[in-house]
């Protein structure tokens, strides 16, 4: 596959984390085996050129991990990403290892014709599914490397308008293959109010175009604190993000990661300034397991069964669904929806038939009424003419019509 990801080989960085991350909690939710093996998590950044994708990767890793090959002076322009590149770091917390990989994709929108710019990205995602499928089909399945994309951060230009056709096209191509997480890029270019309105517009567009973005699940048995945290994160979607790895001084003398402007400093890690903290919390703490699970149970399974069916390998559906409740539920829902749609179509047909019948009857009685009306009118007209004639004759003293006179004569003769 020509689009196979070009994996940059950065040094593995054992990072000291600035504060609590939280993935050490994951073993409580998943197998013990994962503790030994560690976790693999892959996120992808997608969006138009120059929206700050590479910058966000550095901000997430909290380092200039992702650097141009030759070190450039600070004033130099950050080079464009021209190929799909992966970058990984091993993070360790309480003895639990997390291998975090971020895939940077070249920004699109630079060409006169941007119609198929989604293609290389979709192909990259599919080639990762293919590689997993190939490993699953091997006799020795001990060491499966999971390079599948578990989350896709989709960068939206901070226009303040609705989503653009190119964004809609991209998201529609991607949403069946990855967990889409929409992001408003460079949120420091908008006011708080503009961001609120823009978020509304984006969500409306997403709903209108039936695009499925990642939904945070809520579990009933979760404690109140966790639920509140989930709700707070969910409310921020699409996340308004400011990226920067530069340390700047605030007017009150603190040194923070942010962007300095003549009128003040935007802090990356300040929740009042942008949603970066919430995005990181969701990716690394609260929803990592759900993102991985949804990728495996729904997105990958759909891809796999389509692929296998395409190759003529029919699934043993009963066994397959037994072990895959998400697919089973989805199938049941599809069947139910199809049943409802059929009922609706039948009801519509009956309704249309009844309306047509009633219309026919009405038309018939209208015609009958009209004919009767015409007959009565003609009879009345005839009567009127006769009366007028009679009146004229009486007035002019002329005898009545001959047959009428004859009748009179006969009557006279009989008496
Ligand atoms: P491509 O490689 O072309 O796809 O670009 P990219 O999306 O990776 O953008 P990159 O991270 O290279 O950033 C482009 C420019 O935007 C740089 O000058 C960054 O300093 C700047 N930038 C990045 N993030 C932000 C942000 O949150 N706000 C503002 N105002 N500028 C940003």
How would you describe this structure to a colleague?
- The protein is of the alpha/beta class and 415 residues long.
- It has a single domain, classed as Rossmann fold, CATH 3.40.50.
- It has 12 helices and 10 strands.
- The strands form 2 sheets. It has a 7-stranded mixed sheet, sandwiched between helices.
- A hairpin with a 5-residue loop joins strand 8 (247-249) and strand 9.
- The radius of gyration is 38 Å and the shape is elongated.
- Bound molecules: guanosine-5'-triphosphate (GTP).
- Guanosine-5'-triphosphate is lined by residues 49-55, 78, 80-81, 106-107, 186, 188-189, 242-243, 259.
- InterPro entries: G_SEPTIN_dom, P-loop_NTPase, Septin.
Structural class: alpha/beta
CATH class: Alpha Beta
| Number of helices in the DSSP assignment | 12
Question: Which H/E pattern describes the elements?
Answer: EHHEHEEHEHEHHEEEEHHHHH
The biggest sheet, with number of strands, parallel, antiparallel or mixed sense and barrel status, is: 7 strands, mixed
Q: Mean pLDDT, rounded to whole units?
A: 79
Q: What's the CATH architecture?
A: 3-Layer(aba) Sandwich
| Ligand roster | guanosine-5'-triphosphate
Our measurement of the CA-to-CA distance between the termini, rounded to an integer number of angstroms, reads 125 Å
- Biggest sheet strand line-up: 1-3-4-2-5-6-7
Gross morphology = elongated
Low-confidence stretches: 1-7, 26-35, 68-72
Annotated CATH homologous superfamily: P-loop containing nucleotide triphosphate hydrolases
Approximate helicity band: 40-55%
């Amino acid at each position: 596959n020509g689009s196979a990801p070009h994996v940059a080989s950065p040094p593995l960085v054992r990072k000291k984390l600035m504060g609590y991350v939280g993935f050490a909690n994951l073993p409580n939710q998943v197998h013990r085996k994962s503790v030994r093996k560690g976790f693999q998590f892959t996120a992808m950044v997608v969006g138009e050129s120059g929206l700050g994708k590479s910058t966000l990767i550095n901000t997430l890793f909290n380092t200039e991990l992702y650097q141009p090959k030759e070190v450039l002076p600070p004033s130099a322009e950050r080079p464009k990403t021209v190929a799909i590149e992966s970058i990984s770091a091993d993070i360790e917390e309480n003895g639990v290892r997390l291998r975090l990989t971020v895939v940077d994709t070249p920004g699109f929108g630079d060409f006169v014709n941007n119609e198929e710019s989604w293609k290389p990205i979709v192909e990259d995602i599919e080639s990762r599914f293919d590689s997993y499928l190939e490993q699953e089909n091997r006799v020795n399945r001990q060491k499966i490397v999971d390079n599948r994309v578990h989350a896709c951060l989709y960068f939206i230009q901070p226009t303040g308008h609705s989503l653009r056709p190119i964004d809609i096209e991209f998201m529609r191509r991607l949403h069946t293959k990855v967990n889409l997480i929409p992001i408003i890029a460079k949120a420091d270019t908008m006011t708080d109010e503009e961001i609120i309105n823009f978020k509304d517009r984006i969500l409306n567009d997403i709903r209108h175009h039936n695009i499925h973005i990642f939904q945070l699940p809520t579990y009933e048995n979760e404690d109140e604190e966790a639920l509140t945290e989930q709700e707070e994160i969910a409310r921020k979607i699409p996340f308004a993000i400011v990226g920067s790895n530069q340390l700047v001084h605030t007017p009150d003398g603190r040194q923070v990661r942010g962007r300095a402007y003549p009128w003040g400093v935007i802090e990356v890690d300040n929740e009042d300034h942008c949603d970066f903290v919430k995005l990181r919390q969701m990716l690394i703490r609260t929803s990592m397991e759900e993102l991985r699970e949804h990728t495996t149970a729904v997105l990958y399974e759909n891809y796999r069964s389509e692929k296998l069916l395409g190759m003529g390998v029919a699934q043993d559906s009963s066994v397959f669904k037994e072990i895959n409740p998400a697919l089973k539920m989805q199938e049941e829902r599809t069947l139910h929806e199809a049943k409802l749609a059929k009922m609706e179509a039948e009801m519509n047909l009956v309704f249309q038939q009844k309306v047509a019948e009633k219309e026919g009857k009405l038309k018939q009685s209208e015609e009958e009424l009209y004919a009767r009306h015409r007959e009565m009118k003609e009879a009345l007209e005839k009567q009127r003419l006769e009366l007028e004639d009679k009146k004229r004759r009486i007035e002019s003293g002329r005898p009545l019509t001959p047959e009428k006179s004859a009748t009179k004569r006969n009557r006279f003769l009989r008496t």
